[in-house]
């Protein structure tokens, strides 16, 4: 068993604490310039690595996800229900997240003076956002849809701001692959499947640098923000606490409202019995932050304890591990609005609707591994023209929230499998262990 200090989430938390301490010491000891010149760049490198992996991750994951739907030709009815349920729960999750963050407004806990300091830190990005917003107002009502279809896929892949175009291309390629003869398509499927595995490994490598990236980012944020007034740093920590509460509250509401409604409509089981039946899968997902790694356990518990037929479980759950990320989508909505609030940026209704669309599509391409949610958040932030560097504000607590949202992701996969099994007449009796 790993010693606690060798586990990544503890290392990230240690990096956060040390970054805060260094930032406070640097602001008092006159080391601000040293921190900005020689420490903060490593945080920038970490953010750039996240941006670097975003396009290939979405492309490969989505193509693999779409080609996995090849069984829809045999199980078209079940496939349609599965995708419909997953899309519905994802949109509900994002809507709940946006509602909670707009009501609580955790980013507004920062004084206006502190928000102005953060704005100054990202002034160039914010100026670009304002220019883009003015251009957006002058656009036609259907230009947004037109922009999703690229003229040049290479050009789209060169700019993370065109991620929706990459999503479109990936879906189109996936559909094309499953429409050609299997012998020809198998080569491409294996290629993108292998590419997806390689990228997930790269995500693992990048996340190994997360403790150092968090240290550098937080030290830079504190130095930029605090100056000679350390109370500003405390204001930031207070707002971060409210942000965590907003995410956790949103996740709880989603489980109690959406999943409970699914059980009432499509089964007679009680939600507490359902949780007892899949408890090992939830705990494993919570500890590993990986819905993909937990998939074998989830399938075993859903089939043997919940009573979902193997035909349904073997079809619905693997797809869910690829395209159903309710907890991740909700977190992305809360995080994006929180960062915008902390930077003093007001998001319009159109921008918040963009969050719903982008987070839904991004969740389809989110790999079920630790840290993938942060990469998807890069996509959402760029879609609404919010400085990506604002991720520095939330990285320190992301691992804990990642564990919670992964547990919700797994719960959502299992809940949808119950609903689909019921509609197909393939839901048996629940078997609870003593």
Automatic annotation (TrEMBL):
<keyword id="KW-0472">Membrane</keyword>
<keyword id="KW-0812">Transmembrane</keyword>
<protein>
    <submittedName>
        <fullName>Dicarboxylate/amino acid:cation symporter</fullName>
    </submittedName>
</protein>
<dbReference type="InterPro" id="IPR050746">
    <property type="entry name" value="DAACS"/>
</dbReference>
<feature type="transmembrane region" description="Helical">
    <location>
        <begin position="330"/>
        <end position="349"/>
    </location>
</feature>
<dbReference type="InterPro" id="IPR036458">
    <property type="entry name" value="Na:dicarbo_symporter_sf"/>
</dbReference>
<dbReference type="InterPro" id="IPR018107">
    <property type="entry name" value="Na-dicarboxylate_symporter_CS"/>
</dbReference>
<keyword id="KW-1133">Transmembrane helix</keyword>
<feature type="transmembrane region" description="Helical">
    <location>
        <begin position="239"/>
        <end position="262"/>
    </location>
</feature>
<feature type="transmembrane region" description="Helical">
    <location>
        <begin position="12"/>
        <end position="36"/>
    </location>
</feature>
<feature type="transmembrane region" description="Helical">
    <location>
        <begin position="163"/>
        <end position="181"/>
    </location>
</feature>
<dbReference type="GO" id="GO:1902475">
    <property type="term" value="P:L-alpha-amino acid transmembrane transport"/>
</dbReference>
<dbReference type="GO" id="GO:0005886">
    <property type="term" value="C:plasma membrane"/>
</dbReference>
<dbReference type="GO" id="GO:0006835">
    <property type="term" value="P:dicarboxylic acid transport"/>
</dbReference>
<dbReference type="GO" id="GO:0015293">
    <property type="term" value="F:symporter activity"/>
</dbReference>
<feature type="transmembrane region" description="Helical">
    <location>
        <begin position="42"/>
        <end position="64"/>
    </location>
</feature>
<feature type="transmembrane region" description="Helical">
    <location>
        <begin position="84"/>
        <end position="104"/>
    </location>
</feature>
<feature type="transmembrane region" description="Helical">
    <location>
        <begin position="355"/>
        <end position="381"/>
    </location>
</feature>
<dbReference type="Pfam" id="PF00375">
    <property type="entry name" value="SDF"/>
</dbReference>
<keyword id="KW-0325">Glycoprotein</keyword>
<keyword id="KW-1003">Cell membrane</keyword>
<dbReference type="InterPro" id="IPR001991">
    <property type="entry name" value="Na-dicarboxylate_symporter"/>
</dbReference>
<keyword id="KW-0813">Transport</keyword>
<keyword id="KW-0769">Symport</keyword>
<feature type="transmembrane region" description="Helical">
    <location>
        <begin position="202"/>
        <end position="227"/>
    </location>
</feature>
